[in-house]
Amino acid sequence: MSRAVTSLTNPTVKSVRALHLRKERDASGLFVAEGLKIVTEAVELGHAPRILMYGKDAEGHPLLKRAIQATQAARGEVIEVTHEILAKVSRRDNPQAVVAVFAQGYTSLTELKPQSAPCFVALHRVRDPGNLGTIIRTADAAGCGAVILVGECCDPYSVEAVRATMGSIFAVPIVKASEAEFAGWRSNWPGSVVGTLLTATVDHRQATYAKPAMVLMGNEQQGLTPEMAALCDVNVKIPMRGRADSLNLSVATGIMIYAAT
């Protein structure tokens, strides 16, 4: 059964709001997803909410009914809340009518099956959650096998990153690995590992991408470090025809993903 909550000081409301902090997400292993579309994507992929909050605007929607059923079947908590509570837990003036809490899920490097997809993505020290979320969404659209986060990266389960994935956070395996772990695992990679460098001489459209391809991208400020570039079979460049001398990381990664697939 669902229950109604109207107090901003309710313990559950406070715990959901606290998940905006990385230390709380790390400690609990939980994260917040906003919007009926994302929650529906999660449910369809077998991820039931631990906590499901909804407002009057969503009441009676058939997709919400499915989400409520999935939550209750998994013994999660279903709560009808006010607009003020939705704004509080999402930190937005115009919040979505549905907010849910899910368990985080990471895959290990050893669980990946290289032959399961034509392309995989590895990101070294990516800093911007919006970029990361967009890359996860693009990887999902292109049928990539996983997104591997190498070294100290931003949190894929932050509210900003999850928003940018538009639900793909539930569809694409996410892996975390240290530089040393990734380098050791990469030594047995059966296809091409391709990186981007401003100093590269090979056009990304002319490179050979032996399947399965691994697209390895550096962070927003520095690009690939020399150590990461050395792990690549080939480093390529994306030609710049205008005055801009570089691309946004998510855009560049999207170009490389589709070049490799």
From TrEMBL:
One MF annotation (Gene Ontology) recorded for this entry: methyltransferase activity
Q: Which SMART domains match?
A: SpoU_sub_bind
According to the record, the signal peptide region is none
Task: Report if keyword Ribosomal protein is assigned.
Answer: no
**Which Pfam families would you find in this protein's record?**
MRM3-like_sub_bind, SpoU_methylase
- InterPro entries xref list: Alpha/beta_knot_MTases, MRM3-like_sub_bind, Ribosomal_eL30-like_sf, rRNA_Methyltransferase, SpoU_MeTrfase, SpoU_subst-bd, tRNA_m1G_MTases_N
Alphabetical keyword list: Methyltransferase, Transferase
Residues in RNA 2-O ribose methyltransferase substrate binding domain copies: 32-108
Q: Which GO terms describe its biological process?
A: methylation
Query: Which family does the UniProt entry place this protein in?
Result: Belongs to the class IV-like SAM-binding methyltransferase superfamily. RNA methyltransferase TrmH family.
Protein name according to UniProt: TrmH family RNA methyltransferase
Q: Which organism is it from?
A: Phenylobacterium koreense
